[in-house]
Amino acid sequence: MRPSISQRVRSVIEIQSLTKRFGDTVVVDDISLTVDEGTISVFVGTSGAGKSTLLRMINRLIEPTSGRVLIDGQDTMAIPEDDLRHRIGYVIQGYGLFPHRTVSENIATVPRLLGWDKKRIAARVEELLDLFQLDSGEFARKYPHELSGGQQQRVGVARALAAKPALLLMDEPFGALDPVIRHKAQDDLLAIQRRLGTTIMLVTHDMDEAFHLGDKIAVMDQARLLQYATPAELLTRPAEEFVEKLVGTAERPFRLLALGKVREAVEPGAATGKPVSASATLREALSQLLWMGREKLPVVDADGTPLGRISIGGILAHGRQPA
Amino acid sequence: MSAGPILWRLAALVLLVVFITKPELFAPLFEPLTINNAPAIYNQGSLLSLTLAHLGTVFSAALASAIIAVTLGIFVTRPSGLEFLPLSRSLVNIGQTFPPIAVLAIAVPLVGFGEKPTLIALFLYGLLPIFENTLSGLTQVSPLTLEAAKGMGMSLRRRLMEVELPLALPVILAGIRLSVVISLGTATIGSTVAAKGLGEVIIAGLQSNNMAFILQGGLVVALLAVLTSDALMAVERFAARKLGQSPS
Q1: Which of A308, B46, B76, B180 is deepest in the core (most CB within 10 A)?
Q2: CA dist., res. A229 & res. A242, Å (int)
Q3: What are chain A's domains?
């Protein structure tokens, strides 16, 4: 679980035997899982695997054929649709910003629906613009078509978070961004999620994104949930061949290294050269070692205190298949 | 917009206003068109009051068309009204294909001479452009935007009033403009059934073989149409600019 500083609004999501059929086609087949509060669960799979349908059954944009969704123990079917959706943030690919409303008005949508007073809405909009590094003087009065793709994405997420929802559903939220901005946007989302402690369920077809963001990853194929596990487990103990293939056998060790931190592989001793941060991933450390042509580099923590050294051999041991 | 077109429009407006308030000033211009010392300027009523009556008829008919066509357009784009779409289309199409003069012929025995048959003819004739534009305006709203609105818990009514209609507005306005401009010209036939309007001037010209009258009536109607179209287009542009769309 991730630490949160403020706005501790969290929620456990329990999905119980959720099924959706359209005529004879089963789109989501008897899926059960629990999303822990304050974590990010990423749903991956090929297109048509049923990920989006699953997500859209959480906020009842699609009515399940059978099964239940509980939020903090409360059955979502017992909550009026619109009330439920006021409590769940929703971000889609392309964002669907209102083209006739300014950035501020877009962000204020749900608070306005909830009937917050003007002062409170204005303060919340200001707070979110600040959180998403959008200068309010510059952006508050702009219309969506005047924004870049990355800015639109941030407004889309800010709008979804406006009424402090306990749960945020994201359907390919980075799909419309070019790769350079995408990585930055993912980092920003992670940072914001850590700060707010919001529970997030995110759908993507991008494996790198899943490993980058997910506390847990749910792999789906042909309406079924194949495996729901931590990224490390998915790599070291794939439940089925499909999972193994999706994870990518060639990239497996590097993905594993990207999950580990330098802190976990620090050895005693000294080394010379440009120090590596203890909070960097092992993959980043390996990349730095290879690039600089060194066997070892010193490790320092955030305030520069030396902690020891890291070596290629030590890192490689972490990227190995567990015995 | 550059200053040129604005100046032209201003000139047209001034010309129109001067002409309908003090038509006798233009008598020398129209005299060459008359024969047998016929009057050069329409003298059987004030041009100003005829123009106002003409505009009144056109705008009341357009208002009624707009209310009915937009309401119908909204209704048949809702899930519950979807099945009425083909029927509504046919009805509105009949309104457009039925010649207004034939509507007059049918309406006069029913409602008598005067304004009423003209209003009915213009109302029916004006439905189609507004209805079709309402349909295309509402259906071209991005499904993403609607999905987001629904996902945030906006009720059906709010989605319609706060998202769909504002986004469809420029296209609906274009339909209304089209309808008004067509009606401005078509309304002249109302004078055949004794409705007050600029058609009187043209018909008087035809009856007395006075080219000057025909030209005066036509000129005033044409200027009204051009200026009204311009004004409504400016409103459309304003609405479209707010949406970040380029004016059509």
Answers
A1: B180
A2: 15
A3: 13-248 (3.40.50.300), 255-318 (3.90.1280.20)
Q: Mean pLDDT, chain B, as a whole number?
A: 89
Option in A61, A86, A143 nearest B150 (CB): A61
pLDDT in tens, B40-77: 888 888 889 999 999 999 999 999 999 999 999 999 99
Classified by CATH at the fold level, domain B46-242 comes out as MetI-like fold (1.10.3720)
By the 10 Å C-beta count (0-12 exposed, 13-18 middle, 19+ buried), B93 is classed as: middle
The pTM assigned to this predicted structure is 0.82
In 3D space, the residue among A71, A69, A53 whose CA is nearest the CA of residue A61 turns out to be: A53
> Taking a C-beta distance cutoff of 8 angstroms, is the pair B47, B26 a contact?
no
* Partner A contacted by B158 (CB < 8 A): yes
CA atoms of A86 and B150, how far apart (whole Å) = 10
Kindly report the average pLDDT of chain A as a whole number.
89
- Tell me how far apart the alpha carbons of residues A197 and B30 are, in angstroms, rounded to a whole number: 83
The sign of the torsion formed by the CA atoms of A149, A151, A155, A161 equals positive
The two three-digit tokens of residue A224, written as one number? 């079924």
Give the C-alpha separation, A302 to B23, whole Å.
88
Q: What is the mean pLDDT of residues A37-46?
A: 93
Give the long-range contacts of residues B86-92, CB within 8 A, separation 24 or more: B88/B131, B89/B131, B92/B127, B92/B128, B92/B131, B92/B132
Q: First vs last Cα of chain B: how many Å apart?
A: 14
Min distance A207 CA to chain B CA atoms (Å)? 25
In angstroms, how far is CA A139 from the centroid of its own chain?
25
What pLDDT does A5 receive?
41
Alpha-carbon distance A43 to nearest alpha carbon in chain B (angstroms): 19
Q: Are B212 and B41 in contact (CB under 8 A)?
A: yes
Backbone angles phi, psi at A43, to 5 degrees: -105, 115
Q: Which of residues 55-84 of A touch B (CB under 8 A)?
A: 59, 61, 81-84
Helix, strand, coil share (%) of chain B residues, nearest 5: 85, 0, 15
Angstrom CA distances, A16 to A10, A54, A66, stand at: 20, 12, 9
